[in-house]
Amino acid sequence: MLQTDEILSTIQMLHAEHLDVRTVTLALAVDDCAGTSIDHICRKLRDKILHRASALVETCDRIGRKYGIPVTNKRLATTPVSHLVAGHGHATALAIAKALDEAAATCRVDFVGGFTALVHKGIGAADATVIRSLPEVLSQTQRVCASVNVASRKAGINMDAVGEMGRTILRIAEATAAQRGFGAAKLVVFANIPEDNPFMAGAYVGEGEPDAAVNIGVSGPGVVCSALRRRVQLGGKLTLGDLAEEIKITSFRVTRVGELIGREVAAELGVPFGIVDLSLAPTPQVGDSVGEILRTLGIERIGAPGSTAALALLTDAVKKGGAFASSSVGGMSGAFIPVSEDAVLSEAAAQGSLVLEKLEAMTSVCSVGLDMIAIPGDTPAETIAAIIADEAAIGVMNDKTTGVRLIPVPGAKVGDHVEFGGLFGSATVMDVRNVGASAAFVNFGGRIPAPIQSLRN
Amino acid sequence: MKTRFPHAYVLNVMSDDHPGIVAAVSSTTRRLGGNIDALSQTVVGGYFTLIMVISLPQAADPAELAAAVQGPPGGKAGLQVTARPFIDCEGGLCDRKSERFVATAFGKDRPGIIALLSEYMAGKDVNITDLYWECTNDDFVMISQVEIPPSLDIALLQADLEQMGREEGFMVKLQHENVFVATNQLRLVHGTGKSG
């Protein structure tokens, strides 16, 4: 029999703190959709997605209702489309993207990830085709998300790919200039891309994954923030250790909810349960903010000294609570700091307390990296590439995932305000300092060798 | 439920709350050579109540049994006791396939809310297994653990209850108990398979 106080504390989380499951992502291998003609590939792709995913949204909604917990996003992830593009050309890449987009719309999922190229050691022909098609793909589709892995602990950093991504991001932004460069928001450039990440834009199905699996992203920062506030209001002498403990307990509970719903969705869809990603993913909604957590931890202005340490405390406590709650933790599992999607971070960037370099420092202790950051549209490709290289270096040297999702807003200058809408939020165009001063470094190209840490055998 | 001795009785004990009630009840059972097979007690508003199943090696008259537990009139314990023969209904009347849900309601207190909710549930054959009600400064909290027959559509029950809450001015939610187990207890719960 459940105890009354247990029920009351859960009710508090569910209704007052808006606990949700942030995403249920159905991971699908689509390599078996390969074919000799464009039409054949696209037909197989549509048939497979509709067959496996058409019940996803309805199932998530029904199970969410049963537990009284909404599933905010329902998504699809596929194996890299480069596998299907191999042996074909640009037209096939574009047709595949459109087929994915249509199938996702028919299934009513929010996004489909997997327009992916893995180029950390070298750029294969199919990967090159995928990368070249990105400006058209991301400007002509609604739901397709792309990711490119340019570095890994074992391979080092492929600077040719990094340079190419600097140019590609600018082309995507130009191709979506009417939407203030929004296409670039649907692309993440990774180091150490995780194979089972349920979060967009970087979700894809990597090597060694099953044919299908359900991966879960847990609830957002709002729940953790409310729990911390409640703890602070209770008063008494509190130390950071006490606050870390509160985060840990909350993380345990939200992870349990994610796994409960994920396992049931998986069972109903007849696919294995994959992983729970513990990442705290903010939304522009008031209160659902990683920045707000840092404020509650006593950092008055985000970006002030102490921000990195506070974020480290948060990320670590989230992992500890989540790891105890579930034996199936995966994905990125940390805390996201996507600037435009987090109202408090966005405000800090607008006020100038949070700058690009501080964000970079913060990414060394949380998951992903420089995420959803608007920069001037005339930022040179080499500078964008150099920012990617810096972020990849943090990932490769520290054996963690890092990513870059920069949006060069065409025609915009530092301080301009840009609305992306919905979950993507709004951003103030941030200053990129020392523009152009790293071109020679980037233009050397080649590969930054794998670090000594890669020699672990 | 299996009892230790063949002759089983269910007893209800009520009293104002004070030390020694459980001792009085259990020592009488021991004196009769019997065994307490199941027991649950609670205290509400300073009043104590207890329900228990006891079994005896020999048959007894329920009224005499109640009198024995109650003790002499005007005794220190001041108990009010009723008893009846115990008939095992687990697995019989109770539907073991039922799923367990938790209904919670919050709002401004007024007479008749429990009646409203419980009449609705009774009409749907929903069995209330545990009920908690607390009222502070005119605000009430109700927590009701219920068993819902598999034939009922959970989404429709939820819609009915939520609509009732809207019409009557309180908030009511119905959720599967596993979400409370998952968030509070160390043991892992797995989905119940087909939902709704």
Q: Can you describe this structure in just a few lines?
A:
The complex is a heterodimer of chains A (about 450) and B (about 200). Chain A is of the alpha/beta class and about 450 residues long. Chain A has helices spanning about 5-15, 40-55, 55-65, 80-85, 90-105, 125-140, 160-175, 220-235, 240-270, 290-295, 305-325, 345-350, 355-365, 380-395, 440-445, and strands at about 20-30, 70-80, 110-120, 145-150, 155-160, 185-190, 210-215, 275, 330, 370-375, 400-410, 415-420, 425-430, 445-450.
Can you offer a commentary on this structure?
The complex is a heterodimer of chains A (457) and B (196). The radius of gyration of chain A is 21 Å and the shape is globular. In chain A, α3 packs across α9 (240-269). In chain A, strands 1, 2, 3, 4, 5, 6, 7, 8, 9, 10, 11 and 14 form a 12-stranded mixed β-sheet that branches. In chain A, strands 12-13 form a two-stranded antiparallel sheet. By secondary structure, chain A is α/β, with parallel strands linked by helices. Chain A has helices at 4-16, 38-53, 56-67, 82-85, 90-106, 125-140, 159-175, 221-233, 240-269, 290-296, 307-325, 343-351, 356-363, 381-397, 439-443, and strands at residues 21-28, 71-78, 111-118, 144-152, 156-158, 187-191, 212-217, 273-277, 329-330, 370-376, 402-409, 417-419, 426-428, 447-448. Chain A starts with a helix and ends in a 9-residue tail after the last strand. Chain B has 196 residues and is an alpha+beta fold. Chain B is 27% helix and 37% strand. Chain B has 5 helices and 8 strands. In chain B, the strands form 2 sheets. A 4-stranded antiparallel β-sheet of chain B has the order 2-3-1-4, covered by helices on one side. Chain B has a 4-stranded antiparallel β-sheet with strand order 6-7-5-8, with helices on both faces. Chain B is globular, with a radius of gyration of 20 Å. The two termini of chain B are 30 Å apart. In chain B, 25% of the residues are buried. Classes of the chains: A alpha/beta (457), B alpha+beta (196).
